[in-house]
Amino acid sequence: MFWSIYVELGQNMWFSDDPKLDFEDAAWEKLLDMAGTYGIDQIVLDLGEGVVYESHPELAREGAWTPDRVRAEVKRCRERGIALIPKLNFSATHHMWLGEYRRMMSTKIYYDVCRDLIEEVAELFDRPAYIHLGMDEEGDPQFFKQVDMVHYRQGELIWHDLCYLCDCVKATGSKPWIWADMCMYEPEAFRRHLGYGDVVLSPWIYFAIRREHWTLVKSKQRYIDSNEGTLGVEYMEEAPIWQTMTREGVIAANDGYATVPCCSVWGECEYCSDDVVEHFVKSCKKENLIGFMTAPWVKTTMANLDNIEASMRTLAAAREKFVNHQK
Which residue(s) pair with 259 in the sheet? Predict the structure, then answer.
């Protein structure tokens, strides 16, 4: 079982198209040291515009890592006992990093670019065990008003594209890994298109699970504001997204899908890491629970180190309570 942290190299996945990478080498060095301290043995690195791809150098922004830098970091992490896993998000709501190609979604040009990038990162990262494809929140309406062009896939097209991307990864010898949204919300269709051995799933849960740990919505004003006050529930954990991820994540794991639940300090819930690790360890077949991940969802800068460290510290504490202590 591995213990992973999500780390941002690029940031142009969402609403901005920043011309310069907001990534600090000093923070990266500190992060690697902290990973050793807290027993984090895997880093999922969100690449986006943060790499000078030889196949498509036009995607890179100022400060992007060169291919030589990528190879050196992969080697350095391995020497520290850390697997560096590449992430390329191809979700229609998280692909601003693809530049003009995002406007060509589901065309031959788009498919060729996606394949080029997947093949290149597989080589740069020395044939990693996994390549993360993102694929979260496709078609989520909260993103529509914040971008200048709205388009997303649905029906058979989204299944075709997901299977195509997964096949590109498998052709490199790596295993595709995605956020679990498509399986959680359309479980029957997902199972028709992707079998248990085809993909790794990460259900993401950013609040508590135990009823006694639930969070009053009124205590999360920032979250309410970001959702325009439309949650319509008393506790954060009552929202359909968290109920669905918690329930369907366990079902998928017990059906046979390799599963890596993801917790976070993003929701400022002190019980999140503990509850996520405890819930999945106690509810899932051991052979299908291949790891846990934490996602701080902040840029890799010195100003965010407290958040990054808290992510690792709380995951490590949950591991000690509900995994190591149970052996």
Answer: 201, 289
* Residue 99 one-letter amino acid: G
Which sign does the torsion angle of CA 162, 258, 204, 264 carry? negative
- Per-residue pLDDT tens over the stretch 195-254: 999 999 999 999 999 999 999 988 887 766 766 555 688 899 999 999 999 999 999 999
Amino acid at 153: R
Report the alpha-carbon distance of residue 11 to residue 255 in Å, rounded: 34
Q: What digits encode the pLDDT tens for the residues 259-280?
A: 999 999 999 999 999 999 999 9
What three-state secondary structure class fits 44? strand
Closest alpha carbon to 203 in 140, 254, 271: 254
Whether the full predicted model's pTM is greater than 0.85, yes or no, is yes
Nearest to 275 by CA among 245, 305, 231: 245
Other CB atoms within a 10 A radius of the CB of residue 166 amount to 22
Q: Please give the structure tokens belonging to residue 264.
A: 């976070």
Nearest alpha carbon to residue 5 among 85, 59, 124: 85
